[in-house]
Design goal:
This protein is of the alpha/beta class and 461 residues long. Helix content is 45%, strand content 15%. Helix 7 links the parallel strand 6 and strand 7. It binds pyridoxal-5'-phosphate.
Length: 461
Amino acid sequence: MNYISTRGTAQPRDFAGVLLAGLAEDGGLFMPETWPQADLHALRGLPYAELAAALIQPFVGDTIAAPTLRRLCAEAYATFRHPAVVPLVQLDTNLWSLELFHGPTLAFKDVAMQLLGRLFDHVLTERNQRITIVGATSGDTGSAAIEACKNRARVDIVILHPKGRTSEVQRRQMTTVDAPNVRNIAIDGNFDDCQDLVKAMFADEAFRTEIHLSAVNSINWARIAAQIPYYVAAALALGAPAREVAFSVPTGNFGNVLAAWAASRMGVPIAGLTVASNRNDILTRFLAANDMSVRGVEPSLSPSMDIGVSSNFERLLFELLDRDPILTASIMQGFRATGRMATPHEAWQRAKTMFHGFRLDDAGTIAEIRRIAAETGYLADPHTAIGIAAARARPGTTPIIAAATAHPAKFPDAMEQATGARPALPPHLADLYERAEHFTESPNTLAHIQAEVRAFAARNT
Ligand SMILES: *Cc1c(COP(=O)(O)O)cnc(C)c1O
């Protein structure tokens, strides 16, 4: 399988090349040259790790042998604390919750990251290379990346977080990891400062080459590929291919819902996809009125969806434009320059045949958490509750599956506000508040951070 850039001028790569590169050098995102078709009958009833390996194999092509990929998937999903890995819970006649939060850090990002860390190690061992992953986080991504990369032989990971500005659960999930290849740095600044420092390190060509800089952000195709299998598993469990299903997905960077859409391209009968947003509603506005315009990001009770721009949307745009890279590049350049995306009317209408928008503010989110708990006894975290509310806005006879993206114990304040009780952390994290934290502190200057990353990456040589 080869991958092409949505902007058309980057050299096509194989899976290993795309895994290590992340973003294409022309600024575009990598897409598979063709969509493999899933043999849904053959996949029914398989354990999750086997189903995942079978679905991911065509994307990997020749770069990883089938038995190796099966082993990596088995190891990745053995870290999940539910035998079904991604269980379905019924909430109403035609409404289900797809629980994606049984991994080590209690958020759906573990599903992709646990595999990604192992894929990195495998590919880097074959090439006899090392990488240093550098990222900025305000919450879930950093902890999922650290859990996935800790103690990996070929990977060092440095995560910057804004000092005093992440939730205590989220900070402790990162800083209590005690592994020689993990470094947490608390930056004297906010999340944007952290992100600017990371961008500046990537823009410094000499530095990037010297320390073999790499990223694990959600534009990496391998992450999307690793999120496709749970949509297939849920559809099969509820009757596919004989019966259509729909999904509702709490959305930020558009990575998770894009994987659902990829499942439909691979032959899963999907009747519709609801893009559920909080008050940061650029996607809702796009679907309602073809208004993809950038506004300031406002904090909400569902912080992992607090985004101004959904970077994976470019992949959908490319498809809506019949894979025209010149048009995609010009629309993206216009978007960057003006803050407003000029999506052709026909492409917008095509998007609306599959995608539905939905938006819920914080007050609505609290009310929805309270309602779900009162009616069903189910605890939905703020992100999940928005997805469930969006699913309920589309009643019908087609089963609709809401992606449950985080465990409620990650957001104890919102849960207490809605239900009066703080959910307990699962047993493996019960002593999180007693564990020792490991991090260094740094002023918000590029020179300091670069010196620290350089020393960390060089400590073994
Ligand atoms: C990252 C995240 C999201 C958003 O997912 P995208 O792939 O960025 O759309 C939603 N909910 C939770 C809990 C997350 O961590």
